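Entry — protein

Goal — fold tokens:
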Amino acid sequence: MQDRDPELLKRQILRDTGFDCSQYRGSYLKRRLAIRMRANNVESYRDYAEILKGTPPEYEELLEALTISVTEFFRDPDVFEDFEKVVIPRLISDKKGKKQKVIRIWSAGSASGEEPRNLK
């Protein structure tokens, strides 16, 4: 494994955890890896890969460092405009046709679960 290039480490992460970080910008990934490498007192990707192999809980720390929690629920206005104008009216129409009054919506994309609200 080259010490300047995290490509092999990215493949190891994918293989061992199923987490694909291949789409992350190189600078972002290197910064996040550097945080975990400093925490483990290592300077090379090769040494950090060995730590990951021998310390499974370190993968949890790494994945926490790599992922971000976005708490802005309506962060893509175009999607939610379509949701408001197309999906919601269809849901309401379907529920009325079945004489049902409750629509339940769960958002797996919500970082903390607190953004979606009971809207009436």
Remarks:
- Residues 72-120 form one domain.
- The chain has a mean pLDDT of 83.
- The longest helix spans residues 77-97.
